[in-house]
């Protein structure tokens, strides 16, 4: 329809009707057909922000996604005309709306009750800001992953809070797989850490690697997981062997009494052996001399311990074999 009166008719009629969603849907499609993409984007934004129990959150997110697409289709997005700022606002809304959807899905997975149903209705009825999402939904319903995503989205850096959220995430993961066999539990933990690691690992502020390694190794130690399990996850996330070695060596140097208190005083050394063995086995890496020096230090440490210490003989033999392997690698590259 090319009539010049169509746009005015739709806009005017929409102001007269309380439930004007169908008319606004027609209006943005009209703008789209006529390649007035910025106008279409503004109507879609209006629809997404509309408070109504008739619109689902998924529908709102679809509106925002389309609005972003159309705002980007305007050729040169001019910040002078306000289009650049509008696009930025849309992208921020889309990020927050995705968090809102995650919260909605999290609450939907909980036991059905009057409270959860009310929360679901409210989350569908309008778009909310991060403060409201955190205070009224993510925190009361203990949705730790959502809380972390809100903190990250808001650019809020609080070491204690972030470490606490990661601790909650890991504890919830362990609780959710309680009663399953070890392979199932470790695979579930791996999947979750890899997924979250890919989201946050580029910023150590929200992916506190040293803290996470210590926390996860404490659980691994108590649950009897493979010594190479945790470092392998972090390496897959993108942490280099060199960085992992530094972090685990620091953990060893701490001499934390925790390991002895759970009957595994040499746990960190077991992990270091697994880590350095994985490094040595990777033919694309060049063995470095300071690893060999570190192994000497570990062997000296083992000699000072009671010979009856659990795993001491196995570790000593493993470290000696590894040192010989490292030396062969060093000799090869000379």
From TrEMBL:
<comment type="similarity">
    <text>Belongs to the non-repetitive/WGA-negative nucleoporin family.</text>
</comment>
<dbReference type="GO" id="GO:0036228">
    <property type="term" value="P:protein localization to nuclear inner membrane"/>
</dbReference>
<feature type="domain" description="Nucleoporin Nup133/Nup155-like C-terminal">
    <location>
        <begin position="1"/>
        <end position="306"/>
    </location>
</feature>
<dbReference type="GO" id="GO:0006606">
    <property type="term" value="P:protein import into nucleus"/>
</dbReference>
<keyword id="KW-0813">Transport</keyword>
<dbReference type="GO" id="GO:0044611">
    <property type="term" value="C:nuclear pore inner ring"/>
</dbReference>
<protein>
    <recommendedName>
        <fullName>Nucleoporin Nup133/Nup155-like C-terminal domain-containing protein</fullName>
    </recommendedName>
</protein>
<dbReference type="GO" id="GO:0006405">
    <property type="term" value="P:RNA export from nucleus"/>
</dbReference>
<dbReference type="GO" id="GO:0000972">
    <property type="term" value="P:transcription-dependent tethering of RNA polymerase II gene DNA at nuclear periphery"/>
</dbReference>
<dbReference type="InterPro" id="IPR042538">
    <property type="entry name" value="Nucleoporin_Nup155_C_3"/>
</dbReference>
<keyword id="KW-0539">Nucleus</keyword>
<dbReference type="Pfam" id="PF03177">
    <property type="entry name" value="Nucleoporin_C"/>
</dbReference>
<dbReference type="GO" id="GO:0017056">
    <property type="term" value="F:structural constituent of nuclear pore"/>
</dbReference>
<dbReference type="InterPro" id="IPR007187">
    <property type="entry name" value="Nucleoporin_Nup133/Nup155_C"/>
</dbReference>
<dbReference type="InterPro" id="IPR042537">
    <property type="entry name" value="Nucleoporin_Nup155_C_2"/>
</dbReference>
<dbReference type="InterPro" id="IPR004870">
    <property type="entry name" value="Nucleoporin_Nup155"/>
</dbReference>
